[in-house]
Amino acid sequence: MNKKIKxxxxxxxxxxxxxxxxxxxxxxxxWVNILHAEIAPDKAGKLVLDIEGRExxxxxxxxxxxxxELQVQIxxxxxxxxxxxxxxxxxxxxxCPAHALTLDPVDWSLKFDREKCYVCKLCTLACPVKxxxxxx
Amino acid sequence: xxxxxxxxxxxxxxxxxxxxxxxxxxxxxxxxxxPEQACREVDVVTTATFGPMCSSGxxxxxxxxxxxxxxxxxxxxxxxAYAGIAAVDAFIGATELSxxxxxxxxxxxxxxxxxxxxxVQLRATSYGTDCYPRREITxxxxxxxxxxxxxxxxxxxxxxxxxxxxxxxxxxxTYMGALLPMLGNVNYSTSGxxxxxxxxxxxRTIGIGTRIFLGGAQGYIAWxxxxxxxxxxxxxNSVPIGGAATLxxxxxxxxxxxxxxxxxxxxxxxxxxxxxxxxPIPLINPEVAQNAAxxxxxxxxxxxxxxxxxxxxxALARVSxxxxxxxxxQLGGRSVPTAPLSxxxxxxxxxxxxxxxxxxxxxxxxxxVMSLPAEASPKxxxxxxxxxx
Lengths: 136, 389
Ligand code: SF4
Ligand code: SF4
Hints:
The structure holds 2 protein chains of 2 kinds. Chain A is α+β, with helices and mostly antiparallel strands. Chain A is built from 3 helices and 8 strands, in the order βαββαββββαβ. In chain A, the strands form 3 sheets. In chain A, strands 2-3-1-4 form a 4-stranded antiparallel β-sheet. In chain A, strand 6 (101-103) and strand 7 (110-112) form a beta hairpin. Chain A is elongated and about 45 Å long. Chain B is of the alpha+beta class. Chain B has helices spanning 6-14, 23-41, 107-115, 196-199, 286-292, 321-325, 344-359, and strands at 20-22, 44-52, 57-61, 73-76, 79-81, 89-93, 97-98, 102-106, 120-125, 136-141, 148-156, 163-165, 172-174, 177-179, 186-188, 211-214, 217-224, 247-252, 261-266, 270-282, 300-305, 315-320, 328-331, 334-340. Chain B starts with 5 loop residues before the first helix and ends in a 30-residue tail after the last helix. Chain A binds chain B through residues 87-95, 102-103, 105, 107-109, 122, 125-126, 128-130, and chain B through 50-52, 173, 177-178, 180, 185-187, 262-267, 272, 274, 327, 337-346, 348.
């Protein structure tokens, strides 16, 4: 059975050089898609990946990652957008690191590309009318 | 030169013969035919804005209970309202916070709930007098159960406003929204070339007494807005570069619609209110037509650094609304995403609704009874060192 997960890695400063994605692909035979990467040599780095593979490979990879010196957070759930509440103001668009939220340049309505979203929840704080939320 | 009076235009509106276009539509017409011809062909241009405006609120008169009470403290759904006026009058300010729910619910939410027709809990206390013996009351009101509900917004419709960014190393939460560290984003708040005072930069037709669309009802410009700053530096096209004139607005809240008045919470900042405003500009002469044809590329503002917690924030760059609208600007040597806080989509809807109301003869123009000030600058508040000890 195949399994697909979304994972947020936080690297401590100084360890950004480690080829995590390479290991996931090579040693665990996983299909990896980089959704977001924020890496600076002297700062904590952030990496968000879509990881897909056979269920047992995904599990083994997570065990391997748990032993490494980085923080691993599986991003569960999805953000919901209440279109009826939305004012299309755009306040959420400039905080979205995944470019999942954009304003249509023609009719200026909000567009939400759920595929790109990696559930960082920044938009839920930025939206003044709570149109973006994380259902619990 | 072709000149028209308000009366002539109103006569055409009454006969449903007036030609009305939005401020976005007039630009092409002026480009193509020139301001003289545009003024001959078009009678009214509609402008609009739908943004968060903190300086908003409403006067309410609850009617008298039996035995009567001289309300000295008033709460609406646990949000304090100012009752230091007559016995059963109060003012609910949009940014006042609930004493039980904090940032989740404030005066703007009370206003939105009343407009939506919801029941709101009224609680009041008093010291009791010979003529007003009652000392406490708790009951429910709706907009229909009370005498008056008059929206009064001391400062709305900023002519132009600075954009915001943050150069510090942490996210800051402001009335200009969430500002990401290291100049991670730029937020701005105006409908630009569709905005009322951008399209009438010298207040030739918009003044005190002008009838407007306010939150879905017909309202009026009551006065210059607080902190009105018409002396702001201006570009060649007369449009001020940055915050300038403001308007104070009044209208019957009972006739408003929740679609155009929406409560908002800015994370870690507080409560505000989105206010939908539409203002007609009669094309009384070609100059007015020329001004209304202004484009985003010719309207400028500054980006200010909101991480500096002082009255005067340093300006980081000067940008046009065309650049801001493009989705990114160059700042600190790289491309930074931009986002509006005011909804252009809703502003367009309002400009269209107002256009429809004028075309169908429902909305007549009111000539200003007095002009907005041509010159004024806001004063600052100096701290008296003795008093501040
Ligand atoms: S949670 Fe919101 S801000 Fe974060 S990636 Fe998804 S849409 Fe963008
Ligand atoms: S911030 Fe909220 S209301 Fe504004 S566009 Fe985004 S989801 Fe819609």
